[in-house]
Amino acid sequence: MEPSQGFGSGAIRVASHAPVSFHSDMKSLTEYLWFEVPNRRGFVNITRTVEELVRKSGVTEGICLVNAMHITAAVFINDQEDGLLHDYEVWLEKLAPHEPVAAYHHNRTGEDNADAHLKRQIMGREVVVAITKGKLDFGPWEKIFYGEFDGRRRKRVLVKIIGE
After folding, report:
1. What's the pLDDT score for residue 20?
2. For the chain, percent of residues with pLDDT exceeding 90
3. How buried is residue 156: exposed, middle or buried, by Cβ count under 10 Å (0-12/13-18/19+)?
4. What's the pLDDT tens digit per position in 110-161?
5. 57: alpha, beta or left, given left = phi > 0 and alpha = psi -120 to 50?
6. Are strands 155-163 and 27-35 parallel, antiparallel or unpaired?
7. Which residues, 6 or more positions from 131, have their beta carbon under 8 angstroms from its beta carbon?
8. Helix axis angle, 82-95 relative to 114-123, nearest 10°?
9. DSSP tag of 139
10. How far apart (Å, rounded) are the C-alpha atoms in residues 67 and 128?
11. pLDDT at 95 over 60
12. What is the CATH number of domain 27-85+122-163?
């Protein structure tokens, strides 16, 4: 498709940083990160841990998947700024308030965490980050966060790194 065809207007430019390789030794690494956030809700910057796992994997060109393995936790990318994290907390609580717990049909099962399921749905299950020249290929200010919406128990996050 020519740049002028399709949706929107404007050309798409692609910049290549590495030669294309069709025959390589594929590597992979699977690790689990465990969390037990002491409060009901919280955010943990896990960027450095994921960067260490990329180094451990030996992958220089590839993909890194990071996903929450629990339905009331999230993984997302954003800025490490305390005011923004506070704003997320306030915004999410307005969208899906914890109380009154009786307002949610899910809580009729004996749970009190329906709001946590909704907050996770908004914030997302996983992120995928490219690995270029052995490093996570982020935009300015991007960091990876674990978001907890129903804490006080042990939960895990999968980190899967694939590449060459």
Report:
1. 53
2. 85
3. middle
4. 999 999 999 999 999 999 999 999 999 999 999 999 999 999 999 999 999 9
5. alpha
6. antiparallel
7. 54, 59, 60, 61, 62, 63, 64, 137, 161, 163
8. 130
9. P
10. 9
11. yes
12. 2.60.120.460
What are the domain boundaries of the chain?
Answer: 27-85+122-163
CA–CA separation, 104 and 81 (whole Å): 32
CB atoms within 10 A of CB 15: 4
For residues 125 and 61, the answer to whether their CB atoms sit within 8 Å is: no
Q: Tell me which residue of 85, 70, 76, 51 sits closest to 144, measured CA to CA.
A: 76
Q: What is the DSSP string of 40-63?
A: SSEEEE-HHHHHHHHHHHT-SEEE
Q: Which tokens in the block code for residue 147?
A: 């978001």
pLDDT band at 22 (very low <50, low <70, confident <90, very high): low
How many residues does the structure list for the chain? Answer: 164
Q: What are phi and psi of 159, to 5 degrees?
A: -120, 120
Which residue in 69, 41, 33, 38 sits closest to 150, CA to CA? Answer: 41
Tokens standing for residue 94 = 């307005």
